[in-house]
Every structure is written in structure tokens, then in C-alpha cells.
Design a protein that fits this description.
Blueprint (H helix, E strand, L loop, with lengths): L19 E8 L4 E7 L4 E5 L5 E7 L2 E5 L2 E5 L4 E4 L5 E5 L3 E4 L1
Antiparallel strand pairs: 1-2, 2-9, 3-8, 4-7, 4-9, 5-6, 5-8
Length: about 100
């Protein structure tokens, strides 16, 4: 059974002028999907997730730190992290990202 359909997921969030905005698009007992909008220069400081996580960049450019290694991200970039992997995200431009 399908309970969520998005034909253009990027249109589901607007990047704020300043700050970070998040919107939960789907949640069940197994999966949580969150769409983020980052203003340029905004950062999610180092943190971990208790479950595996995927970062999929839809628009913009960012730097992603994973377990102490730095990675450039742009539209189409995709990262998988096992549970409890420390990571950071810093937006270089306006960014839309799905997690």
C-alpha cells in the first residue's frame, strides 16, 4: 500500500533566507523520511543517528563530514551511513536534501 506520493519532491520545501527548515514527509515503524532546506552557510553540527541514514542531495552544494572525512556534495549526491556514524552537513549554497 502506498501512503505517500511526491511527483517533484524538491517543491515540498522552500529554502529559508536564514537557518534550516525540515519537514517530515513520511514516517512508519521502519522508515522516517525528512526533507531539509538549508540557507547558505548553515550547518548541522556533528551528530549521530541511532539507525542507518541516507543523505540524498537534491539541489545546491554542501560539504558532508562523515567519520572525520570531508566530502563535497551536489545535486544527485547520495551517502549511506551505518547507525551511530558521526556526521556533519554545511551548506555552501541554498541546499535541499532528503534524509
Amino acid at each position: 500500500m502506498c501512503t505517500g506520493i511526491f511527483y517533484n519532491i524538491s517543491q515540498e520545501i522552500t529554502v529559508p533566507d536564514d537557518g534550516t527548515l525540515s519537514r517530515t514527509l513520511y514516517r512508519d515503524d521502519v522508515v522516517k523520511v525528512v526533507l531539509f532546506g538549508f540557507a547558505p552557510g548553515q550547518e548541522l553540527s556533528e551528530h549521530t543517528a541511532a539507525v542507518p541514514a541516507i543523505l540524498h542531495f537534491l539541489e545546491g552544494e554542501a560539504n558532508v563530514g562523515i567519520a572525520g572525512r570531508s566530502h563535497d556534495a551536489g545535486p544527485g549526491s547520495w551517502f549511506y551511513m551505518q547507525a551511530n556514524t558521526p556526521h556533519t552537513i554545511t551548506a555552501k549554497t541554498p541546499v535541499k536534501m532528503l534524509r
